[in-house]
């Protein structure tokens, strides 16, 4: 009897240990796969795939706004708070590029991107198992999942450099970081699949908020620019501009409509729609707007003016020189605050995201319906101008034409020469795309970070000062297979 009992005990012990080991190995990616649908309730039809894709877009919408605004605009020192000295908010010192400030604002946490990637991996695995599938729909679904995965990895590699490369929906193994070159190879492969499978346009309801061929061209153009392949970057930008069926919004009284979403210049953006329960409280919205938009100050949000994040008047005057004409001065920013020098501490509201749900809950701050722009036509026009002006391409006259097309829409003075054309294009990107999470990436790509941010080391690129630290929890869960970025060791 004791022998039988002992044997049973050993079997139970082994089972428990196996269970513990299995789940203790849920290490690096920890994707919490998958909300809608799961592998358990299966993806067995095209309709299921569409729901799963909705989940992937939702996961992307959860992670991108805060991450890209804080680590894109704030880290580039475009926005600051007048509480900077007392440092009463965790965001205020992000631009100083110190480990504590970055980690306290989730700058070391990549799990949201891997959750999105795991969803895309699951979708791509399941598509091949579905026998009844309209071919156009199948190709669209393959293209969308590939696009979202590529975009997620593009954010990962620009933030952290070498990152784990996982193409499985569920992976409990300890995956080491792959070299950036391997990650970029996968990004480009996914974008090529997206370009091959997606159409230029779909229906009006999905305009800009679901992946298209134009969106894939645009993101691949950014990938090529990031890797300094300006010749290919220029060609991809040209495809977006000439074949993508996009056009500039020319009504300067209605430029704010761009951020309501789905405008004629929208290429890819994250949709926020109250009727679809997509409103979200995040720091893009509630840190750039104060009263009367937000009244709740319980978390140090927009209802408390001293926590507001905005460019200083000095920085704005560097972009929009006083006495010059530029329609973006009073459309990107709230005019009443811009022209009033007597506002305490001279806070000037960024107004790009000031569209509100008609009957929003102002006390919870879940009231904003502006879309988060990932890329739009002026971004690609100016990226092409940058590529054309590069020594590798050297077609400066065409670069000036594109630069002036963006300026002309804003009734700004046209560029007629003088100064450094590449620096002029970079400044134009700052003026046009402020608050859209582009500028830090622009400074790294053009190797200008030390000249226009607080990251001023001469060897900032070689030492990896531009990379984010990796959260120590992620490193520990990997049994130290994941190693810290060298600059942060």
From TrEMBL:
Its main location: membrane. It is found in: Cell outer membrane. PROSITE patterns: PROKAR_LIPOPROTEIN. Keywords: Cell outer membrane, Membrane, Signal. The keyword Membrane applies. Residues 345-446 form the RagB/SusD domain. It comes from the Bacteria. Residues 43-223 form the SusD-like N-terminal domain. It holds the Pfam family SusD_RagB. GO terms for cellular component: cell outer membrane. The keyword Lipid biosynthesis does not apply. Belongs to the SusD family. This is SusD-like starch-binding protein associating with outer membrane. It comes from Pedobacter metabolipauper.
């Amino acid at each position: 009897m004791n022998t039988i009992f002992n044997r049973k005990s050993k079997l139970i012990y082994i089972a428990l240990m196996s269970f513990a080991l299995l789940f203790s190995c849920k290490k690096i990616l920890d994707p919490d796969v998958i909300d809608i649908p799961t592998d358990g309730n299966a993806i067995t039809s095209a309709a299921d795939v569409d729901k799963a894709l909705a989940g992937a877009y939702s996961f992307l919408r959860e992670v991108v706004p805060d991450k890209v605004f804080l680590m894109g605009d704030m880290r580039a020192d475009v926005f600051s708070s007048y509480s900077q000295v007392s440092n009463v908010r965790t965001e205020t010192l992000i631009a100083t590029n110190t480990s504590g400030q970055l980690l306290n604002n989730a700058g070391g946490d990549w799990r949201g991107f891997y959750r999105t990637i795991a969803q895309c991996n699951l979708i791509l695995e399941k598509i091949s198992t579905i026998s009844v599938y309209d071919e156009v729909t199948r190709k669209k679904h393959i293209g969308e999942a590939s696009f979202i995965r590529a975009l997620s990895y593009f954010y990962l590699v620009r933030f952290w450099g070498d990152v784990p490369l996982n193409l499985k929906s569920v992976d409990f193994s300890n995956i080491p970081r792959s070299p950036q070159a391997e990650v970029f190879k996968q990004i480009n492969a996914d974008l090529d699949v997206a370009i091959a499978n997606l159409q230029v346009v779909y229906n009006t309801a999905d305009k800009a908020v679901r992946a298209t061929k134009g969106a894939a061209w645009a993101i691949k153009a950014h990938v090529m620019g990031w890797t300094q392949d300006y010749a290919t970057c220029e060609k991809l930008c040209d495809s977006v501009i000439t074949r993508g069926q996009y056009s500039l919004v020319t009504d300067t009284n209605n430029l704010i409509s761009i951020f309501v979403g789905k405008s004629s210049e929208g290429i890819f953006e994250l949709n926020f729609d109250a009727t679809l329960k997509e409103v979200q409280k995040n720091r893009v919205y509630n840190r750039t707007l104060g009263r009367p938009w937000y009244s709740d100050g319980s978390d140090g949000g927009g209802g408390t003016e001293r926590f507001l994040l905005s460019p200083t008047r000095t920085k704005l005057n560097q972009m929009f020189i006083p006495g010059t004409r530029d329609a973006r001065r009073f459309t990107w920013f709230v005019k009443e605050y811009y022209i009033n020098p007597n506002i305490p501490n001279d806070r000037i509201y960024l107004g790009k995201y000031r569209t509100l749900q008609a009957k929003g809950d102002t006390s919870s701050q879940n009231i904003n319906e502006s879309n988060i722009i990932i890329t739009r036509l002026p971004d690609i026009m100016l990226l092409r101008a940058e590529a054309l002006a590069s020594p590798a391409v050297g077609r400066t006259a065409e670069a000036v034409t594109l630069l002036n097309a963006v300026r002309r829409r804003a009734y700004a003075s046209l560029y007629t020469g003088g100064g450094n054309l590449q620096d002029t294009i970079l400044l134009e990107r700052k003026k046009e795309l402020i608050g859209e999470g582009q500028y830090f990436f622009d400074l790294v790509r053009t190797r200008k970070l030390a000249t226009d941010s607080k990251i001023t080391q001469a060897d900032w690129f070689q030492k990896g000062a531009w990379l984010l630290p990796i959260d120590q929890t992620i490193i520990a869960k990997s049994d130290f297979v994941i190693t810290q970025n060298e600059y942060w060791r």
